[in-house]
Amino acid sequence: MYTTVWKLFINPVTALVIFGSGVALADNDSDYSGKGGLTPASGEFKTTIFPDTLTLTPAGDKCLVEVKGLLEFTGTLVGVAPGKTRALVFADCDTVAGGLPQGIFFEDVFKSNSEFLGTVNGEPASADIIWKGFTETGGTIDKSVMILSNGAKGVLKVKASVGVGGSYTGVVKGE
C-alpha cells in the first residue's frame, strides 16, 4: 500500500487531484507505522523568506514568483532545509508587485525544492524535500504535502502560513 501511495504523490498531476480530498496516508499514520521502517512523524517548522531573491515573471494573466528561503524543523525532523520556491500566483505581476495589505497574500499553487540536513527520529539524515500545495487568499496553506527522498524518505501532510511556517504529520524513514 505504501508503495502505491508513494507513486501517486510522485506524479504532480495526481498529487494535485489528491489535495482536494486530503492526504490519506498522513491521516492515518498508524496504518503505516513499522511497515518498511516507516514511523509516524509530527512537528513544526519555521519559514524564512529572503526578499532580495524575489523575482516576478509574467505568465499570461498570472505571475510566476520565485524566491529563496529556509525551513527550520523541530519534532521528528530536526534541522534546516534551504531551498527555492516557485509559485504561480492567480494575479498579474503588476498587481502582485503592488502588493496587498501586510500579511495578506494572493491565491497560488506552489512547489518548493529544498535540501534537508539534520536528524530524523534522532538519527543523522539528509533528504531532498519537494513541498507542493495551494495557498489560499490570506496566506493559509491547508492543502499541501512534503515528499522526502534521496536519503531519508517520507510523506508529510502540511498546514502552514506563508512566510511564517506551520506543522506537519505523516510517516518517515531515516537513511
Structural features, described:
The chain has helices at residues 2-10, 12-19, 24-27, 93-98, and strands at residues 39-59, 62-75, 77-89, 108-120, 123-135, 140-149, 153-161, 165-173. The chain has 175 residues and is an alpha+beta fold. The protein has one domain (2-168). Strands 1-2-3-4-5-6-7-8 form an eight-stranded antiparallel beta barrel. Mean pLDDT is 82; it is low at 1-30.
Short key terms for the protein model shown above:
single chain, 175 residues, alpha+beta, 4 helices, 8 strands
Count of alpha and pi helical runs: 4
* Mass-distribution shape: elongated
Strand fraction band? over 45%
Give the helices and strands as they follow along the chain.
HHHEEEHEEEEE
DSSP strand count: 8
* Side-by-side strand order of the widest sheet: 1-2-3-4-5-6-7-8
Whole-number tally of structural domains: 1
Largest sheet: 8 strands, antiparallel, barrel
What value does the average pLDDT take? 82
**What percent of the residues sit in helical stretches (DSSP H or I)?**
10-25%
User: Helix/strand-derived class?
Assistant: alpha+beta
Radius of gyration (Å) = 16 Å
Give the low-pLDDT segments. 1-30
Distance between the ends: 21 Å
